[in-house]
Amino acid sequence: MAMFRAGLQRLSNVFNGQGGILSRLITQNAPTTNVTAPNTTKDVIATCNKLIEERTSRNFAIVHLLGKQWRVTDGDLLVVEGYWPPNIGDKIKLDKVLLAATKDFSLIGRPLVQPGLVTVTATVISKGLSHTRTHFKKKRRKQFMRINFQRAQQTMLRINTVEIANKINEAPKNVF
Amino acid sequence: MVFLTVANWIRARGPDEFWRKRRIFRLAAHYTGRRRNCYSVAVRNVHRALAYATKARKLKKEDMKVLWDTRITAACEQHNITAFSLREGLGRADIMLDRKSLSDLAAWEPKTFHCLAAVAKEKLNLDNFIDGTDKKEPTGINLNLKDVMLEAWLKEKK
Amino acid sequence: MSAAKRVQQWATFARTWHIFDCKWQDPYQSAEVIKKYLMGLHKPIYHSMNDCGDVVVCINSREIALRGNDWRQRAYFHHTGYPGGATWTLAWEVHNKDPTMIIKKAVYKAMRGNLQRRHTMQRLLIYPGEEIPEDIIQNVSNQIRQLRLVPTRLDHISEEEVKKFPKVMDYPQDYVLK
């Protein structure tokens, strides 16, 4: 279902067809990674899988939640606005992961990454109301004035973990 | 307007007028000069401020959209792709990232943004999509030093 | 903020110095490009309230090119503030008086009028010729690409090359050149 483009910094240079001789002419602002330039897709995936096993750096993911996209990493706080059923203390898994990445590679979903590949778990830590928003309208010289007050429901979420649970291009572990 | 002395209550002319004015004065508490002390001035300013705040909730969203677009355009320029073709390429590849996350990635995760730009380019290349925009000045990662005559110019001067 | 983070912050917001050669460039089109670098619009961290703009050094501003008959037709307006104090100066007159004025005004006009504009303009350095003070040129680390190629004029090509160039015909002896 989902095809992955696991892009390494060097790989995209291969895309551009600017490796080799012309590399002298490419000004790279980012420091080059210590990973040697892989040549084929297989190598890229193997390298990524090795990195996933080693868990060298912390991950981040972009998740889709209540119509909005959030870039999250371990320990983040999210404030979600509007009616949302989960209650305080609920542990939930955010399934709609659009993109997940570490320091060295990115997994880009089309539009979502393969289910079970990336797990983002979160805990609902508080539910409450936002500050009072005053909706005020007035027209000059027309004796028109309206004032309304509104408070939206807010749910605060703590992101517990963002981890790449499985290896790329492998059948998902049966977690359900 | 918090009266701690009983003597001050003598001037208060009635419960309703006092509370009505107090409501406005509380909102004008952080103003300066007559704007905070004089009711007829304060009420005008408070009304204006509330009306602005109401409108600004919508404007803020529009402003953010413009800011995200600016940031995406800036980041795209570094990768020698136009913002339009980035969106087109990502759309064709079914990558549904919105402006907010794209600009977030551009600012905080430049390597991931680089990959996205490469994916968009590759997808458009596969689709034989030609971006008609004239990209006059590639900068950043695709800047070809051969075309930049700065060094030659500096050498010439010395 | 840790020491490493602090350095990262400095590096992120450090000013880059760009150089732009105005030779044979349209000042109004180049102003759009120069503006981008001055305001920091070319950085993904841009925000109108953060100070991420760069410095642009313009050289050869004496040799800008205006379109059409702009040199004769375009007038720059100035008002002293007193009654009858309005003056209109033609572009060629302005340029004779101060060769940096036209490009400066073009960039100023390209930016939105807000409190930042005058401070942003401070970061634009314009020089009429190629001579730049040494302390400025040593900061420069990038060149902004010119919008169009500088055309080569016939009188700048050496006579030998002109003679060598294949000709279709020669003018007859009695042909009167205007």
From TrEMBL, chain A:
<dbReference type="GO" id="GO:0006412">
    <property type="term" value="P:translation"/>
</dbReference>
<dbReference type="GO" id="GO:0005762">
    <property type="term" value="C:mitochondrial large ribosomal subunit"/>
</dbReference>
<dbReference type="GO" id="GO:0003723">
    <property type="term" value="F:RNA binding"/>
</dbReference>
<keyword id="KW-0689">Ribosomal protein</keyword>
<dbReference type="GO" id="GO:0003735">
    <property type="term" value="F:structural constituent of ribosome"/>
</dbReference>
<dbReference type="InterPro" id="IPR028909">
    <property type="entry name" value="bL21-like"/>
</dbReference>
<comment type="similarity">
    <text>Belongs to the bacterial ribosomal protein bL21 family.</text>
</comment>
<keyword id="KW-0687">Ribonucleoprotein</keyword>
<protein>
    <recommendedName>
        <fullName>Large ribosomal subunit protein bL21m</fullName>
    </recommendedName>
</protein>
<dbReference type="InterPro" id="IPR001787">
    <property type="entry name" value="Ribosomal_bL21"/>
</dbReference>
<dbReference type="Pfam" id="PF00829">
    <property type="entry name" value="Ribosomal_L21p"/>
</dbReference>
<dbReference type="InterPro" id="IPR036164">
    <property type="entry name" value="bL21-like_sf"/>
</dbReference>
TrEMBL record, chain B:
<dbReference type="InterPro" id="IPR005813">
    <property type="entry name" value="Ribosomal_bL20"/>
</dbReference>
<protein>
    <submittedName>
        <fullName>Large ribosomal subunit protein bL20m</fullName>
    </submittedName>
</protein>
<keyword id="KW-0689">Ribosomal protein</keyword>
<dbReference type="Pfam" id="PF00453">
    <property type="entry name" value="Ribosomal_L20"/>
</dbReference>
<comment type="similarity">
    <text>Belongs to the bacterial ribosomal protein bL20 family.</text>
</comment>
<keyword id="KW-0687">Ribonucleoprotein</keyword>
<dbReference type="InterPro" id="IPR035566">
    <property type="entry name" value="Ribosomal_protein_bL20_C"/>
</dbReference>
From TrEMBL, chain C:
<dbReference type="Pfam" id="PF00572">
    <property type="entry name" value="Ribosomal_L13"/>
</dbReference>
<dbReference type="GO" id="GO:0003729">
    <property type="term" value="F:mRNA binding"/>
</dbReference>
<dbReference type="InterPro" id="IPR036899">
    <property type="entry name" value="Ribosomal_uL13_sf"/>
</dbReference>
<dbReference type="GO" id="GO:0006412">
    <property type="term" value="P:translation"/>
</dbReference>
<dbReference type="GO" id="GO:0017148">
    <property type="term" value="P:negative regulation of translation"/>
</dbReference>
<keyword id="KW-0689">Ribosomal protein</keyword>
<protein>
    <submittedName>
        <fullName>Large ribosomal subunit protein uL13m</fullName>
    </submittedName>
</protein>
<dbReference type="InterPro" id="IPR005823">
    <property type="entry name" value="Ribosomal_uL13_bac-type"/>
</dbReference>
<dbReference type="GO" id="GO:0005762">
    <property type="term" value="C:mitochondrial large ribosomal subunit"/>
</dbReference>
<comment type="similarity">
    <text>Belongs to the universal ribosomal protein uL13 family.</text>
</comment>
<keyword id="KW-0687">Ribonucleoprotein</keyword>
<dbReference type="GO" id="GO:0003735">
    <property type="term" value="F:structural constituent of ribosome"/>
</dbReference>
<dbReference type="InterPro" id="IPR005822">
    <property type="entry name" value="Ribosomal_uL13"/>
</dbReference>
